[in-house]
Amino acid sequence: LEKEALQKVDDATSLKELQDVRVAYLGKKGPITEVLRGMGKLSKEERPVIGELANKVRGNIADAIDSKKASIEAAELEKQLEEETIDVTLPGRPVPTGGPHLLTSIVEEIEDLFIGMGFEVREGPEVETDYYNFEALNLPKGHPARDMQDSFYITEEILMRTHTSPVQARTMNAMEDKRPVKMICPGKVYRRDTDDATHSHQFTQIEGLYVDKNVRMSDLKGVLDRFAKQMFGQEREIRLRPSFFPFTEPSVEMDISCKVCNGEGCSVCKQTGWIEILGAGMVHPRVLEMAGYDPKVYSGFAFGMGPERIAMLKYGVDDIRHFYTNDIRFLKQYHQA
Ligand code: FA5
């Protein structure tokens, strides 16, 4: 019996087989247990002899099983380690990565451009007071020009800002020593406009403000011309058309030429070959005064542009709503590799 059992232990190749051997020989219904159970029926002389023998056999089989178990476990561990070895030379699986939104990229590009001309970047609140959004910009209550920017009011005195121009007044007010200011301010603005291909009820603006002694209209023109050429190409031209904003005098709107020529001829955007991208002008003396700057000493220019419109022009995007509906197929086209 012992020989037979040890042979089976030796033959076992897995822990399962080994366990089967243990149950068969040492289990409750196994032959050794049976022998031990039948001891009562034996004579006094036989009992110690048989008992000792049975225990010895049981011990030998159990020892054999334990040592076999250890060797099977070691072999399995070895196998597992071998199987789980990582081949570090295999190419990795590509992980899809995101990228900046086109609008974020264009705003950063415009920021860089103006930082290069000595402007600093500022921010202001999107939830704004009536005072900063309108009154401090020479738009008292009841002024008809308020209709130019239909607003989302929260209370009578608080609204979602309709443009980034309140940051002009905030920046000048905050200057305790009333020193020169040269800043741009990008941010979200809100208007009760009906959404269409070129209008959104929430869009982005970038404000610019330069206040110093002897700032002139020609400075404004020079800065805007440089901006247009760096943004769209050296062949581009700008033109300033008379316009009206209560916070600038004189006021202009800036068009950029969009005549594109190649070997086969020229194509023109719109009928005129010019497209409007921003409003600007010389800061109104009243606005300077309200912010504590003496208009006899200081003068300044300001502008406000819509980066969505600029991105549309630069990248040929045909509908402003693409910026906000977040179709990944649209956004992906503008991710740099
Ligand atoms: C203004 O908001 C003035 N604050 C700009 C300004 C600043 C003038 C400083 C003078 C001095 P306007 O409403 O024209 O002006 O808007 C400026 C630009 O914002 C427009 O040229 C256009 O590019 C963009 N814009 C206006 N309305 C929308 C809209 N609904 N959707 C998308 N872009 C818009």
UniProtKB/TrEMBL annotation:
Domain Aminoacyl-transfer RNA synthetases class-II family profile: 102-313
GO biological process: phenylalanyl-tRNA aminoacylation
Catalytic activities: tRNA(Phe) + L-phenylalanine + ATP = L-phenylalanyl-tRNA(Phe) + AMP + diphosphate + H(+)
Annotated positions binding Mg(2+): 249
Primary site of residence: cytoplasm
InterPro entries hit by this protein: aa-tRNA-synth_II, aa-tRNA-synth_II/BPL/LPL, Phe-tRNA-synth_IIc_asu, Phe-tRNA_ligase_II_N, Phe_tRNA_ligase_alpha1_bac, Phenylalanyl-tRNA_Synthase, tRNA-bd_arm
PANTHER family for the chain: PHENYLALANINE--TRNA LIGASE, MITOCHONDRIAL (PTHR11538:SF41), PHENYLALANYL-TRNA SYNTHETASE (PTHR11538)
Protein's name in the database: Phenylalanine--tRNA ligase alpha subunit
Origin organism lineage: Bacteria, Bacillati, Bacillota, Bacilli, Bacillales
